[in-house]
Amino acid sequence: MVRIGIVGGGQLAKMMAQEARKLGFEVAVLDPQEKCPACGLADYKITASFMDGDKIRELAEISDVLTYDIEHVNVKVLKELEEEGYPVYPSPRILEVIQDKLVQMEVMRKARIPVPKFVRADREELKEKAREFGFPLVQKTRKGGYDGKGVMVIKTEEELDKLLPADSMLQEFVNIEKEIAVMVARDQYGNVEVYPVVEMVFNEANILDFLVVPARIPEDKAEEAQEIAMRVVKALDGVGIFGIEMFLDKDGRILLNEIAPRPHNSGHYTIEACMTSQFEQHVRAITGLPLGSSELLVPAVMFNLLGEGYGKPKVVGLKEALSYPGVYVHVYGKPVVRPLRKMGHVTVVNKDLEKALEIAHKVKGIIKVVGNGS
Amino acid sequence: MVRIGIVGGGQLAKMMAQEARKLGFEVAVLDPQEKCPACGLADYKITASFMDGDKIRELAEISDVLTYDIEHVNVKVLKELEEEGYPVYPSPRILEVIQDKLVQMEVMRKARIPVPKFVRADREELKEKAREFGFPLVQKTRKGGYDGKGVMVIKTEEELDKLLPADSMLQEFVNIEKEIAVMVARDQYGNVEVYPVVEMVFNEANILDFLVVPARIPEDKAEEAQEIAMRVVKALDGVGIFGIEMFLDKDGRILLNEIAPRPHNSGHYTIEACMTSQFEQHVRAITGLPLGSSELLVPAVMFNLLGEGYGKPKVVGLKEALSYPGVYVHVYGKPVVRPLRKMGHVTVVNKDLEKALEIAHKVKGIIKVVGNGS
After folding, report:
1. What is the pLDDT of residues A277-323, one digit of tens each?
2. Yes or no, beta carbons of A23 and B331 under 8 Å apart
3. What DSSP letter does each residue of B227-261 carry, written as one string?
4. Which reaction equation describes what this protein catalyses (chains A, B) (predicted)?
5. Minimum Cα–Cα distance from B18: chain A residue
6. Nearest of B258, B271, B336, B290 to residue B14 by alpha carbon
7. CATH 3.40.50.2300 fits B3-88, yes or no
8. Is B174 known as a binding-site position?
9. Which residues of A touch B (CB under 8 A)?
């Protein structure tokens, strides 16, 4: 019996744990929350901060292999464990690269992955570097950014005072045609499975509205994006599942945006729409098993269920939502709602992608996760 | 938050619980085993016998709806609960009908479902009734039969001493061309979703070898079988998922064999191969949600992982098994192995059914669940 230790017990860990248990593995979870989404599926639970090195070592002791469902964990201890010969997947080396957006881009540029033009800009020289770089530009703080945080668009010299006071990189402002993402799984023997290209559709407030697969882009561009995504994961010597976010710009260039060394929101559709889900691939890869097929069986549209209000969660409209064909609802079981918190997701599958989109639009207006205010 | 109480914590309850949690429901399980397959997924666990009425009432008190994953439970208490207005699905009335094979067939014959010819034969009049009925015949004891137990084939008058000493029914010996099964889901509003016909392939020892879907039978026979299966569930006024086992005989007749008022072994393929799994359908039906589509997305072959030896289970050959495309392994997490105990199952999907069968044959020779002898 193999036991998988997961640092982090959120929805990604929950869905990993479900696949792990299906394959007969046990699961141990470390999470600061007493009642985390994955907790109810874990054979063992350690309640501790993701930064608590001693507790991460305790998790390693009761497990046979470690993985994680978030990037902001104690990398130092994971690296020590790896150096001691303990299996940690994906390698904490990769976490170290990814936790610093500048380093991430430098490593990728060195590996000849197409990336937006960028320069390093330390905190004390931000304005000077920005003027040199030219406008419009995008500032990204090197650390701590997540879901759009730590990012600032500076359109003209007049906006220089908006710069965030932190060590950063300055990136060219990409004229985005579409934001796309590709999931890539890679096993311990170097074999790779690449998923189809996903298209991210944003609303006016720049919040991810829908995820559409296959992406409505030319076939040669889709192949190019898959090729780049695989090269990214190979360049990192990654083992596990990776989410590779990219831009397709108005000139037809595909440029790397960001790497997630874990199951990713843009891969949730794989549960219903693909032969093997991103979570099963991850479990297979980190336990030394061969990968499954990433083949898409049916087009899909996914949207997140973002929290509304505060308090204990209540799912509204579930019954009506499920009355549409091909609608799959995932509620993560988070104990409390906060506005815009990811409380679940919905996948709509249909042989006709336009039909799936139509149903997804309708269902999105129906199903909500709201707080009871207490 | 709705909490589903399940009497029984075996593999069927485990897979139900996974779907229930996905939809945001909580789960409470009653099972005599301390470490049952569903236990690790349950929010609440009651350790007690399936016959313990007080404990079943306790389960009802902490739950919002009751269901079960086996038939041999305390029906009396479930009926009392239902009479008090507590929701129990499928209705314990149905359990009562099904627990007695004679009553099951009588009810079905009355509903004009095609059944093999049969007569009642009480324990003290077995031989006499058998002679009257004629040979060959099949004796089925009215109660307690399971997985082929309680069944005796009497080919000639000379074999009369083989009759099992129990109240029974005597059934015509059907010249079986194929054994088939159909899963049917029915919601609280009378809507029905019917799954494709599954073909059961037995080995020389008459143990189920493979389950093949879609069944290799003429299309009009498949439609007839689906029609009969739906009529069975309607006749019972069933709510939930039902497995309807039937015979296709050498004269082309389709005859009812047995009814399972719960998720069924012959519906496991739905997890990977259908739009909505039998487990999700069951959870939807019993919680008052609408059903999902039962559409088959890809042909499938399923086989059970039967235990070998005794002791703690060890999965052998997992890595090699998963190296074949479209192979999905489910290990139930039962704490100990016994010979022929269902320890898990494997589903092989492939757009080409013959290819799926070929892979299933190979993989069946590779993957085993063996006891460590301790």
Report:
1. 999 999 999 999 999 999 999 999 999 999 999 999 999 999 999 99
2. yes
3. HHHHHHHHHTT--EEEEEEEEEETTS-EEEEEEES
4. 5-amino-1-(5-phospho-beta-D-ribosyl)imidazole + hydrogencarbonate + ATP = 5-carboxyamino-1-(5-phospho-D-ribosyl)imidazole + ADP + phosphate + 2 H(+)
5. A18
6. B271
7. no
8. yes
9. 1, 18, 21-24, 40-43, 272, 275, 284, 288-290, 292-293, 297-298, 312-315, 318-319, 322-323, 325-333, 344, 349
Mean pLDDT of B116-139: 96
Task: Provide the token pair at B69.
Answer: 């994953």
ipTM score of complex: 0.88
Say yes or no for a CB contact (<8 Å) between B333 and A24.
yes
What span, in angstroms and rounded, lies between the C-alpha atoms of B96 and A161?
77
Residues of chain A in contact with residue B294, where contact means CB-CB under 8 angstroms, are none
Measured distance CA(B133)–CA(B121) in Å, rounded: 10
Q: What is the pLDDT of residues B283-331, one digit of tens each?
A: 999 999 999 999 999 999 999 999 999 999 999 999 999 999 999 999 9
pLDDT band at A148 (very low <50, low <70, confident <90, very high): low
- Across the interface, do A330 and B40 touch by the CB < 8 Å criterion? no
pLDDT (0 to 100) of residue A90 = 98
What average pLDDT does the structure give for chain A? 95
User: For position A226, what pLDDT does the model report?
Assistant: 98
* Least reliable range by pLDDT among A245-254, B126-135, B146-155, B272-281: B146-155
Cβ–Cβ < 8 Å for A53, A25: no
Tell whether residue B25 is among the known ligand binding residues: no
The distance of A54 to chain B (nearest Cα, Å) reads 26
| Structure tokens, B317 | 């050959």
Provide the CATH topology of domain B117-172.
Dna Ligase; domain 1 (3.30.1490)
| Sign of the alpha-carbon torsion through A223, A224, A230, A233 | negative
* Highest CATH level, class, for A176-371: alpha beta
Q: Where are the domains of chain A?
A: 3-88, 117-172, 176-371
Yes or no, beta carbons of B22 and A329 under 8 Å apart? yes
pLDDT of residue B76: 97
